[in-house]
Amino acid sequence: MCAKYVILDCDGGSDDAWALLLLLHAERNGMVKLLAVTTTGGGNTTREHCARNMRRILKAYAREDVPIYLGAVEPLLGSNDDEKKYFHGQDGFGDCLDASDCEKVEDFVQPLHAVSAIYELCRKRPKQITLFAIGPLTNLAVGFTMYGEEFGAHIKELCIMGGNYQGVGNSSRAAEFNFHSDPEAAHAVLAKAKRCPITILPWEPCTDKHFNVPISWRLEDFGARAAAAGHAAITMLNKVESVQWLPMRFPNWNPCDAILVAAWLFEPQMVKKHSTWNATVDLRGTHTRGQMVLDHLREIEKYPENVRILEEIDNECFKRVVEWIAGLRKEV
Amino acid sequence: MCAKYVILDCDGGSDDAWALLLLLHAERNGMVKLLAVTTTGGGNTTREHCARNMRRILKAYAREDVPIYLGAVEPLLGSNDDEKKYFHGQDGFGDCLDASDCEKVEDFVQPLHAVSAIYELCRKRPKQITLFAIGPLTNLAVGFTMYGEEFGAHIKELCIMGGNYQGVGNSSRAAEFNFHSDPEAAHAVLAKAKRCPITILPWEPCTDKHFNVPISWRLEDFGARAAAAGHAAITMLNKVESVQWLPMRFPNWNPCDAILVAAWLFEPQMVKKHSTWNATVDLRGTHTRGQMVLDHLREIEKYPENVRILEEIDNECFKRVVEWIAGLRKEV
Amino acid sequence: MCAKYVILDCDGGSDDAWALLLLLHAERNGMVKLLAVTTTGGGNTTREHCARNMRRILKAYAREDVPIYLGAVEPLLGSNDDEKKYFHGQDGFGDCLDASDCEKVEDFVQPLHAVSAIYELCRKRPKQITLFAIGPLTNLAVGFTMYGEEFGAHIKELCIMGGNYQGVGNSSRAAEFNFHSDPEAAHAVLAKAKRCPITILPWEPCTDKHFNVPISWRLEDFGARAAAAGHAAITMLNKVESVQWLPMRFPNWNPCDAILVAAWLFEPQMVKKHSTWNATVDLRGTHTRGQMVLDHLREIEKYPENVRILEEIDNECFKRVVEWIAGLRKEV
Amino acid sequence: MCAKYVILDCDGGSDDAWALLLLLHAERNGMVKLLAVTTTGGGNTTREHCARNMRRILKAYAREDVPIYLGAVEPLLGSNDDEKKYFHGQDGFGDCLDASDCEKVEDFVQPLHAVSAIYELCRKRPKQITLFAIGPLTNLAVGFTMYGEEFGAHIKELCIMGGNYQGVGNSSRAAEFNFHSDPEAAHAVLAKAKRCPITILPWEPCTDKHFNVPISWRLEDFGARAAAAGHAAITMLNKVESVQWLPMRFPNWNPCDAILVAAWLFEPQMVKKHSTWNATVDLRGTHTRGQMVLDHLREIEKYPENVRILEEIDNECFKRVVEWIAGLRKEV
Ligand SMILES: [Ca+2]
Ligand SMILES: [Ca+2]
Ligand SMILES: [Ca+2]
Ligand SMILES: [Ca+2]
């Protein structure tokens, strides 16, 4: 089996951490080759906090060799902090870890900007790299603006966690957090990535109605077993996610970014339903700014299909993936 | 059993006709008292065509005594014919009936404007009249503007066919026909009807995914039986709906307006799922203009619940309702 | 000279009062015949306060015979009180007059709604009535929606105080008060009044940069002379306008509604510059909602000219008009 | 006198060429030091055509040493070619020059991207470089997104040709070409450049109403004199501007980009009126998308002044500037 190249473009929350852990474990098993972690501000936290959090995971996993690049500082139009819901704390990791555990950001990040790094890496391995975009799409939108269609032409496949397809919002009443954090970027990426296939995990399949991994299973059952097995990164995430999840009293654990990566690694088992659409992002709606909009009229000549949407995920399979990451099982 | 007062505010399509037929049959069975039919332009057809079509049904049912009032000529902002999809033909009835079968509109409609008629009728019987709004909501929006909150305070209950709740559009990619035909009116009614409960049948439960009454059952099986039983109005609608439906090759028959009235008359059997929400209508979205938007954040203090949404309908039950209208069965 | 028929559709501020006074004085001089005063809510004050204020003027002028009709309660979309700047006080007259000086509103207003009154009056005298619209355009927009193009076809001429043409706002940063109070209505009237010429006095020619009648001239010089001459209505307005203007420390007096009527009565002397345009009203702009927008590309085939804009007014002439109203001079 | 550092960020039209020529002549006179020419697509032409046109001027002026950097390929949201008015031809220079006169773009442009070049140059000489932005503001917006507020903090002064302040449009009915070509970029720059003063020459002072340099003076009188004097670059522009201007039958010559540079170099003589405002750019208006909007309410605490607007320019002085460039006069 030949390892697939991947880049992780993330915004540093605890589910971004799980996505990274999953890629690292997949790499250990010869399934992927992780070329870079790129960060973006304007989502869960600043690009520097994001870099620090990802560095913590890499360190706990003894993979400080993976290069981290700092990306966009802000969304295209600037941030509207007033409107935003912070779920992951100010630092993306629940503000519960000791800052002294981490080197200075400037000491471990690469000198190149994330946008340039993505562009250069993909140019060197055209159509060979899968890009996971699990934060606001600012870095990608900037890449398309700076380099045009060519930017997307070199990417093999774009896998996005973000948006919604039935109008269910978690950041505003009708918009999902990643898209709502930079609606113009989301719009631009869907419009400009004509030469690169896109798979999207939207918000709806991650909601309680569709995805049921009890938070008690995550924090008590599984969390205890992983800690007992001595998994340093998961032990750290036990703390982070307890701080984030327990006060909210949400019944289920849905680390969306990791669900996307799991769906990509184990599609036949993980994905129970998917469909293809022409999708765009509304920018001007009073309530629907940042909402993804599908072409329900199916006017395919005018609006060709540009995204594949994952509609239903097998949560039992996802539990097995998580146990696999923790070393608690050999196979998924 | 005490008959409930109803007014039918409609835009003259064939499903409006079915809604009227259902009310007439319910009246014959002592369930309701139909006080007026009011018409609106800017939806399926002009307010005059609408009046003519409803008059045809009333005549075929020997109920010329039911008064018809002409309502709004246009949507609040004027019509955008370019954007619209006409399903019911220019005249709302598939353009297939002989115009000579009908009196002149001015000879049979009431002199009062529909908006004034609704206002006066409801003032006389405060909180006793259920208003079915099965076209664009223009007449109601005008009433709220002219008379303020008082206009709604006299209405017992507002039952609306229109809008959507999962972003599925049939008039634009993200908007349903009735709301899209006058988005400002839909917005205004949801915002202003604070003293009058609202039930909405949106588009999604009427789509193939959720509602399956085969068009062949309608036009061949049931249509033949109703014609054989000598039902004049249904025989006329057999012709109208054949012209409308067959060229489209839609698999299912979903006369939305009639489904709403049936759900109201027979709620326990008809309605399998409903929920309450704060809902508004987006006016400014590029793609979501006219889309209904639910408050998925459930910020109830700021945005109190204002609508009840019918999410799932029993289509087998609806078939029984239709047979009941045709006199093919005694009970639903 | 043959008197011209006029209707005054107003929202009850002190400049509405001056517009009424000017029409009453013109009528006394055989220049016009005032058929009705119609009121609208959603502008300076409620429709009832508006009626009361206009009644005060009519009484002070001994013209209780002029019929007053109550119009729209609210703007088409409902009011956004948060966004509004009240200049004229809660009651439109600076909240400084004794409420006991006035009869009950229901005792002196006509039973018919203003929209119906305008429609009926203009139908009876087609193309003979000039309609002054000096508040939000809600009544007219409702008329066009209820009756279609025919509503405008009977009006001889529509004279509007409202809007702007260089982006200068007084209600929001880019919108004028009357248009901003019901942007949809302003948009609809400009779009639908195809069979009726429109003259607009926008905000810019009324600003200090273009119009200089010192408030001291108004309140001290002229006000004292009119009071000395025993003009009851102006004496009342001396009080009202002192309360409104002095705390603001605005240097100039610009009773916009009266300037419009004066420009119409004495156009050759009053109007120094005018131009014709295709104009519309922006509804969706973040900052430009309610702004009037001219077709500076002059794409006349697609967008025919629909308004005449008064760009510059002679303020010295206006002072003479005011003195003429007060009986301080025989001619303008 | 100490030369001031400048960078020219342009989109390659003939007025961009005049702006460059003016800077080159100023440099020859020891007034400025031109560090770089950066190009952007999405305005008059592609970034490559822009580079080629600027190279032609540099060559004609024997200044091939000035580095040219390619910038953004597209606007942030992608281009809407349908809506755009091309004044300068497909290639920005009237499509009238022989393509063979120019080297390959890749052979003379710098390897660095314009956004990085601007960032690096300004970081090296913090608060010493004046940046002229005379095309769509895409490069600057990308810089602010990638590097945050720091990007602007290093710039001494930003001089922009673009936008409007009285709603006069030349690209759409209410928007000016440069801002309309990338409204999001214009919005972002005005919002984010908090640590860098901005001077704007909007469209209105360049219109016939305010600026009168007859096209006949430019092409016949002055053009002939400059050609006779053997000025190679102007001789080339004689051809280019004849092709662009004459078919349009515009009466006046208004090379906006050069007017801005002239106003900066010779402010006391050139600028007859200026004012400071809080300004933003409307993004969502149906007609006002891309329009600049001033805070006419002057709510300075909430919206601090962020731009200086040049309202009136002395066109006689500009003619002297142009003659100075051509070597036809020693002083302005
Ligand atoms: Ca994330
Ligand atoms: Ca209907
Ligand atoms: Ca007024
Ligand atoms: Ca330019």
From TrEMBL, chains A, B, C, D:
Organism superkingdom: Eukaryota
Domain Inosine/uridine-preferring nucleoside hydrolase: 6-319
Database matches in Pfam families: IU_nuc_hydro
Alphabetized SUPFAM superfamilies for the sequence: Nucleoside hydrolase
UniProt cross-references to InterPro entries, sorted A to Z: Inosine/uridine_hydrolase_dom (IPR001910), IUN_hydrolase (IPR052775), Ribo_hydro-like (IPR036452)
GO MF annotations in UniProt: hydrolase activity, hydrolyzing N-glycosyl compounds
Family that this chain belongs to: Belongs to the IUNH family.
The protein's name in its UniProt record: Uncharacterized protein C1683.06c isoform X1
Source species of the chain: Drosophila lebanonensis
